[in-house]
Design a protein that fits this description.
The protein is mostly helical. It contains five helices and four strands, in the order ββαααβααβ. The strands form two sheets. It has a two-stranded antiparallel ribbon. Strands 3-4 form a two-stranded antiparallel ribbon. Helix 1 packs antiparallel against helix 2. The longest helix is centred in the C-terminal third of the chain and has 26 residues.
Amino acid sequence: MGNRLSKIVTRTGDSGTTGLGDGSRVGKDSPRIDTLGELDELNSAIGVLLAETLPEPCGSKIRECLLTVQNHLFDLGGEICIPGHNSISEEHVTLLEGWAEQYNADLPPLKEFILPGGTRPAALAHLSRTICRRAERSIVHLGHNEAVSVHARQYLNRLSDLLFVLGRTLNRAGDGKGDILWNNPRNR
């Protein structure tokens, strides 16, 4: 494969349009480009999380998991960039479900809502989760007018679940205190 990004400054987007993977051009404010931007932001937020030292005994496994997710998000971006192309399959969704179940099995049941925070890695997992939810809303919005695969939507839904569980796992491993519970007004 040749150099795909040999020239970065092209000036082709100066008019407010951008090229898709199939060669067509769309407005930079189109739902498809919004979705691509949300996926890029999500992948970048996960990258910031991965720049942290993740606590053991789970840190190295979480790192492997999130690196796989970053690659999947690039694949999903390719799917959105090329109308009609499918990259995300049921197997991708099932993998996320398995990880979420695996990490959740070691956590105490939730009896109250939790606050996003605690250790820095956990807080970054929660931030990534909220960006993932926004990307999910964006892909649903795109699907109102253009074809979007069911697996693409499911992937983002499962990924936000996984990021929630990873936030809890990282809090528990990081300082041993675990979740930061919401102070329900009924209990104040």
